[in-house]
Amino acid sequence: MIITTQTHTNSLTKILDKAVNQAEITQEEAIFLLKQTDIEKIHLIRSAADQLRFEQVGNTVTYVINRNINFTNICEQHCSFCAFRRDEGETGAFWLATEQILAKAQAALQEGATEICMQGGLNPQARYQGTSLGYYLQLIKVLKQTFPQLHLHAFSPQEIQFIAREDQISYENVIQSLQAAGVESMPGTAAEVLVDSVRKIICPEKINSQTWLEIVGLAHRLGLPTTSTMLCGHIETPEQQVQHFEQLRSLQQTALEKAYPARITEFILLPFVGQDAPKALKNRVGRDQPSLPNTLLLTAVARLYLGKFIPHHQPSWVKLGLEGAKEALAWGCDDLGGTLMEEHITTMAGAKGGTGLTVSELQNAIQSLNRPYQQRNTLYQLI
Ligand code: SF4
């Protein structure tokens, strides 16, 4: 068969119709979408993602008032995209005292925050009464005793595995203990790309794909909601990007089919920022950041592939800048994320998006697109 431009357009239209009609597009179809380079066709993909977003979650753009607290950047691992980590005693290393954490939470509350997002480096010295879990529990208890009204969105699947390994206990034991102490949801970070051949290059010491999926699936079964993320725009191929989407889609399908008490609340695309990251990966990638058009196309395909199962999609204003994040709201996203108040991890890698936004800045950005805004809490309940 001779493949003509018309044949391609017909295939494209069929795939987009399928997605807009809420059918599941296949991995091959998603890869086909990601490989489009013609401006007109990319415009069709954007329109389909935007239409699907409207049908799945409406026109309102949500945001959350939250604060990031990274309690330490001392980390035993050496991910090749990470400019945040330090060895103990190295210039720039920090480990917050309880009083500093409480002061940050107090300031967040004064700004109207409903959520504290807490994650940190993997620091084997962080122990309380002899255990790693003890340290994390004591962190949570201090925060929740003082600020019970703040939702604690804390500790990635990698941190769960770290605690379990340090204390020789099960993931289930760790998650249930954190939940009992006051953790109410888990950041779906450390996912990077859920393809082990990619992980071996960008984060060789991190948990593998299967362990990430196991811990997040377990969290859902135990009633702990999670987010989901993808670190994109470095060495991964379109095929690997879609493999990642497929892992998330089937994880969410399992949670739904088995009626687990919790599931994935949102998908966040995190474009690689390499300006100040270690040089090896940056040199291999050959650029500091993926181009905005590539990120936007991936944003649209994420909506088309995942939207039926994960309806909320958030761009990262830290990585894209506020203008880039606003643009992504026309490519399938419906949420502008949080105020954050202090963002270190990406800013230390050279991102120029800033370390925090005010509520007015988020609202004005949404309003400038002629879309309504609405504050939400971590679990997407409207406030
Ligand atoms: S990304 Fe996380 S686990 Fe990897 S080196 Fe940085 S702080 Fe450590």
Key features?
mainly alpha; globular; 383 residues; 9 strands; binds iron/sulfur cluster; 3-stranded parallel β-sheet; TIM Barrel
Question: Can you describe this structure?
Answer:
With 383 residues, the protein is mainly alpha-helical. The protein has a single domain, classed as Aldolase class I (TIM Barrel, Alpha-Beta Barrel), CATH 3.20.20. It contains 14 helices and nine strands. It has helices at 5-20, 27-34, 39-57, 98-110, 132-146, 157-167, 171-181, 196-202, 209-221, 238-257, 279-285, 292-306, 317-328, 359-367, and strands spanning 61-64, 66-70, 115-119, 151-154, 226-232, 264-271, 313-315, 335-338, 373-375. Strands 8-1-9 form a three-stranded parallel sheet. It has a three-stranded parallel sheet with strand order 2-3-4, with helices on one face. Strand 2 (66-70), helix 4 and strand 3 (115-119) form a beta-alpha-beta unit. The longest helix has 20 residues, at 238-257. The protein is globular, with a radius of gyration of 20 Å. The model has no long low-confidence stretch (mean pLDDT 94). Bound molecules: iron/sulfur cluster.
